[in-house]
Amino acid sequence: MQEGRPKRVGELIRQEIAALVAQGLKDPRIGFVSIMEVHMSRDLRYATVYVSLYGTESNRKGSLAGLQNSAGWIRREIGKKLRLRYTPEIRFLEDTTLDRVFRLEDVFKELHESDEEDGAGGSQQHS
User: Fold this and answer.
1) What is the dihedral of CA 66, 92, 9, 16, to 10 degrees?
2) Helix spans in 32-96 (H)
3) Disulfide check for 50: which of 22, 41, 95, 101 has CB 3.0–4.6 Å away?
4) Domain that holds residue 28
5) 111 in helix, strand or coil?
6) Is residue 74 located within the same domain as residue 113?
7) Between 109 and 73, where is the model more confident?
């Protein structure tokens, strides 16, 4: 039961934060962001929000800083909408999972292309 409740609360918080970000936060640094996942502590007092950030490196850093600066306001808004004994302290971390997936896809594509080149070159040599 202890694992189920933190997951459910984390999903509710993820939805609320995604809605707040979609409505637009006032910080101009925040660009295009996706709220990927929220991990809750067992006591539900801390929420770690994983976000995917898009744009150049400086845009991504600015977006993350803007989200971190907005964490207090976001926490208050969540407290108004969700009835929890304690509104969790929120911290934002960049989710680099998609970056790793894209890098792996590039590596696989390069390997596949080099295999095709080796296969084409090998059949010409044997003819």
Assistant:
1) 20
2) 57-81
3) 95
4) 4-95
5) helix
6) no
7) 73
pLDDT of residue 91 exceeding 90: yes
Strands 33-40 and 46-53: antiparallel
In which element (H, E) is residue 39 found?
Answer: strand 33-40
Whether residue 110 is found in the same domain as residue 125:
yes
Mean confidence (pLDDT) of the chain:
85
Please tell me whether residues 119 and 59 are part of one structural domain.
Answer: no
- CATH code of residue 73: 3.30.300.20
103 & 84 share domain: no
Q: Note the Cα 63 to chain centre separation in Å.
A: 12
Cα 66 from Cα 18, distance rounded (Å):
15
pLDDT by residue (tens digit) across 18-31? 999 888 788 888 88
pTM: 0.73
Total count of residues recorded for the chain:
127
Our CA angle for 17, 60, 38, nearest 5°, is 30
DSSP 18: H
